[in-house]
Amino acid sequence: MIKISKLLKINQKIVLASKSPRRITLLKNLGLEFDVIPSNINEDINEKLQPAEYVMELSRLKADNVASMLGGDEIVIGADTTVYLEGNYLNKPKDCNEAFAILKRLNGQTHQVFTGITLINNQTRKIISEYSKTDVTFRELTDDEIYAYIESGSPMDKAGAYGIQDDFGAVFVSHINGCYYNIVGLPIELFYRMLKEVLR
Prior knowledge:
34% of the residues lie in helices and 24% in strands. The protein is an alpha/beta fold and 200 residues long. Strands 1, 2, 3, 4, 5, 6 and 7 form a seven-stranded mixed sheet that branches. Helix 4 packs across helix 5 (143-151).
């Protein structure tokens, strides 16, 4: 495995301001060495913001919250993902009923997945924020399929109440336009470019 830390000559500690298992796995797959320190911000921000602004603002708040705890020479990664359909944000469901309602809304429709990323270099105080957008189209789902997926428990910690990387969630998606990893929670190619930039 190529070690990104060695390739980019990173001699600073990397900190992920998120406990998302998907983001942790993606960063590990990149061969990146990092610590996990989840942020403790209030994520209830103004939903009148446009989706790109919304996810970048939340990613900045997360990264800044953790960076302020450390104050050394770390590079802090903040990220936020949301699902957007016809002017509405569909974030993590509060319960099974809400998960069902969200998946019914996505049924047979094309929605957008936005992920914002913020990188803070605590050594240089350089801050970079970007976002990625992917269009995702669901096929027509039956109620039985939706209930079976909800019973697995998988929708409950995911924006839009589904995970494209899940064994069963994957069969809901007929096609996408954009970055697959953005839907999982971290657009890898964008992140890599941002990491190179924040190290300069």
